[in-house]
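Exercise 7.
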Amino acid sequence: MLPHVFQVEPTSQQQTVTDEVLAALVATCPLLETLVLEGCCTITDAGLFAIAQHALQLKHLNVQHCFRVGVPGLRALAALPRLHFVNAYGCVPSSKELGLHGVDVVVEKPTWWMR
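Solution. The predicted structure, written as tokens, is:
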């Protein structure tokens, strides 16, 4: 078990982070609080189901541009008691259908990004 791993940012290895790798990570790092998976296009709802089952300390999740993630996987995150923020920009068109009450969810490009 790796109890002091709190943040994972696979910036240069986005293709190698699969659902299986993600499941193994969250199963062995129960104290994970922040998980940045931006651009990991191999992650699917199965990966989010693993997060919902094992990462009970998770507070922040970034799955921006993880195009294979959908509503079922994001809805599963409602099981995480400490989750406060999810960046799902590029995954789903609306946060209304997710049912993540009390969680700040980004699904659109923020207005400050607009020119």
